[in-house]
């Protein structure tokens, strides 16, 4: 009796309309990007590429505000970017170095270098007060800028793939190749909740309002958790055999989740039950064969509009239709 149900599910999924025409599209990089991040409110974006270094954009005006370089003498190989929840700072990282930038003046706050291992993912708190660095040796480093305090979370036994941090810097979420995601206290490094998966945890995200955590693994299992209790809220109803996420964002009201993937797909989900509501496909990189693009970042602009930044070098605005 399972086969007809599975077949019906496949038919429903295959008939889902995929939108490919954006309401607006701006080219931010001519030859594609390594990484990008969009502010929580969708006002700013930062994009990393070889030809332009780090480009900080005002999305409301589609105006380039700043261009930064990690090392003017070498190619820009920045693969991780984060914007603070209050839009005051940008954190950027290549494999060995990370840097903090002010968005009001464009000035650099500081450069730091890892003595061992490499940077896997980063996060930054409001006012740039705290930085979170996930590393290839399995450790997660939490840095308080004002005091220089560095706390290392050693709960993982294998390399880190993804990290997230609460706006005040007090709580962190990390996921790694050890099949575990941990929500932990950055004051004490004590684990608050453990979220286990059957394969390596490839992506994590936190709801800035402190309601939910998102964890996803490399074998199409993605879950939303209640941060306060650690209880499972929902599992995303994924129909693909293998689904990896490259971008995740909760809506401000906590009702919806937006995800991006390395397959050009941009999907809206309902948090309460994990149901897919709408799907879009971002523009491919010019000249790519087959046509491809990684969705680097996503954000909600309003209850009816969203925005994406992808490796094609385009920022694209899309319309939500809840009907």
UniProtKB/TrEMBL annotation:
WD repeats lie at residues 153-194, 194-235, 238-279. InterPro entries: Quinoprotein_ADH-like_sf, WD40/YVTN_repeat-like_dom_sf, WD40_repeat_CS, WD40_rpt. SMART domains: WD40. It comes from the Bacteria. Pfam families: WD40 (PF00400). Keywords: Repeat, WD repeat. PANTHER family: TRANSCRIPTION INITIATION FACTOR TFIID, TRANSCRIPTION INITIATION FACTOR TFIID SUBUNIT 5. This is WD-40 repeat-containing protein. It comes from Arsukibacterium tuosuense.
